[in-house]
Design a protein that fits this description.
globular; mainly beta; 37 strands; 13-stranded parallel beta sheet
């Protein structure tokens, strides 16, 4: 069990950038304030790590008390107690047996409550804290630290069991993912910080994960192992990573100072609501939504992201507009059931990030293509990749359905602010983009040439409108070479940003 690996759908130069590593310093970062009331955003930071809510000072009635002076007491009492037992961990540092595989294996409906100062410490000896397939387990008011899960594995809910509730818990300084997620999981008011790969990874071997809530958490300083540098193009890092999640509410979180992306949804995710978050000072993009479907992104405050990765990318001389909100082969699809049938991005404030929003579609990435880096997965409309072969792929319905398409994206009522003197750049940090590459591969591909670039730019109902721009913004359409000013972007044939305004800002 563990973290699923994918290569992200970036051009080769971008993959090389990520592989080179990002040396920003994760940490507490600056203290964000509420977004300006005129913006439509109302995000406020969830400052959990500095003051986590304390647990009960006394054992609840009927609870089993766990003694920190007895090594392995928590595991032993879990084994000897029936399902549905509540365990109260006394103040102090609790330890498991020293064997690397020693772990707590809950029974269905168990509750684990930490007293003020209760810590479960793996001491860099134990790989996992809580594992197994029991449903409806609760972990509250506990600090979990010092576990050494291998790469691509997690520490809490290691096996992605369903129905877990993780609240008011600090999960910090572990290897791998601090926390895994199963279906119907509730992750609320936690501090997820300084973990080796992810703060949270939502993935099940027999997925999809459904009905996930991630609310009011502080997620900071994750990917201390700098895995994109160590495993080129692994796509295995960030504050939170979602794989094949069907239905997620991600709201009211403070996602900041992570090495790599803040939030990253990768491969056949659907029906996301990402709202009222503060996404701030992440080394890479604030949000990547990749080969996925149907989402609402609204009322978020997104600032000072992508300074590390975006700068390195630009300094290498590549023209790809690697932005702070990056949609890669993702769009609205009415045939996939969700609370919306498009991707709608509205009433957000994006301030002093390295570039804005990029809509991208790789012409060579489709089901059954050797260029599909998603490990053989196919779209939710086809599923069986081997159906996407010649000659059938060249005709309806497979010509359309074998692609993850960036389509039906509606970007409106956002405020985009850029002061280059704050960002510390002179070029390539000022772009908004909708584009694709020239299709070349494989030789039997029906998507060769400019077909995909023409479609994403002009035919797939991707629209910017009624936005406010402050600063020296430029716009890219069709391919990286077409850099437009605001008038060209609004004019034929692109006709973007009707009803929008552009005003110069400080530092222009």
């Amino acid at each position: 069990m563990g973290i699923k690996r994918r290569n992200q759908a970036l051009p080769a130069a971008a993959l090389a950038l990520l592989a080179s590593g990002c040396f920003g310093t994760p940490g507490a970062g600056s203290q964000p304030s509420a977004a300006p009331s005129t913006s439509g955003a109302r995000s406020a930071a969830a400052k959990v790590c500095a003051g986590p809510a304390p647990g009960p000072a006394q054992a609840p009635a009927g609870a089993v008390t766990v003694d920190p002076s007895v090594v392995g007491d928590l595991s032993a009492k879990t084994r000897s107690s029936p399902p549905g037992t509540t365990f109260w961990l006394r103040p102090g540092t609790h330890r498991l047996d020293p064997d690397r595989y020693a772990q707590v294996v809950p029974k269905q409906g168990n509750h684990y409550l930490g007293a003020p100062g209760a810590v479960l410490d793996g001491r860099k000896k134990n790989q996992y804290a809580f594992s197994g397939t029991a449903r409806d387990v609760t972990v509250r008011h506990l600090t979990v630290q010092g576990f050494v899960a291998p790469h691509d594995e997690g520490v809490v809910n290691h096996d992605s069991a369903d129905g877990w509730v993780i609240e008011h818990t600090t999960i910090q300084r572990n290897s791998g993912a601090g926390l895994m997620a199963g279906a119907r999981q509730r992750v609320r008011a936690n501090c997820l910080r300084d973990n080796g790969q992810y703060g949270l990874n939502a993935y099940k071997d027999d997925g999809p994960v459904s009905g996930l809530v991630v609310e009011g958490n502080e997620i900071t300083g994750n990917n201390t192992g700098d895995w994109e540098r160590r495993k080129e193009g692994c796509g295995c890092t960030g504050g939170v990573k979602f794989w094949a999640v069907n239905g997620a509410d991600v709201r009211g979180n403070w996602v900041h100072d992570n090495r790599g992306a803040g939030l990253w949804a990768d491969t056949n995710n659907n029906d996301f609501r990402i709202e009222d978050n503060v996404l701030e000072a992440n080394d890479g993009a604030a949000l990547i939504y990749e080969t996925s479907y149907n989402a609402v992104v609204r009322r978020n405050t997104i600032r000072r992201n992508n300074w590390v990765e975006g700068r390195r990318y630009a300094e290498r001389g590549d023209n790809f507009p690697f932005a702070t909100v990056y949609l890669s082969e993702s769009g609205g699809e009415p045939r996939v059931k969700a609370r919306t049938n498009k991707i709608e991005i509205y009433r957000n404030v994006l301030e002093n990030n390295w570039s804005g929003i990029t809509l991208w579609e790789n012409a060579d990435r489709f089901c059954n293509s050797p260029a599909n880096t998603s490990s053989g997965d196919c779209t939710l409309l086809v599923r069986q990749a081997d159906r996407c072969a010649r000659p059938a792929i060249a005709a309806a319905p497979l010509y359309a359905d074998c692609r993850w398409k960036t389509q039906r994206v509606d970007i409106h009522a956002n405020r985009f602010v850029l002061d280059k003197s704050v960002v510390g750049c002179t070029v390539k940090c000022d772009r908004m983009a909708v584009l694709a590459n020239y299709g070349t591969y494989p030789d039997w591909s029906p998507y060769q040439g400019e077909r995909v670039a023409e479609a994403i730019t002009l035919k797939q109902h991707n629209r910017w409108h009624d936005n406010t721009y402050v600063g020296p913004w430029t716009f890219v359409a069709h391919d990286p070479s077409r850099v437009l000013d605001f008038g060209q972007w609004q004019g034929a044939p692109y006709e973007q940003d009707a009803g929008s305004t552009l005003a110069p800002g400080a530092g222009d």
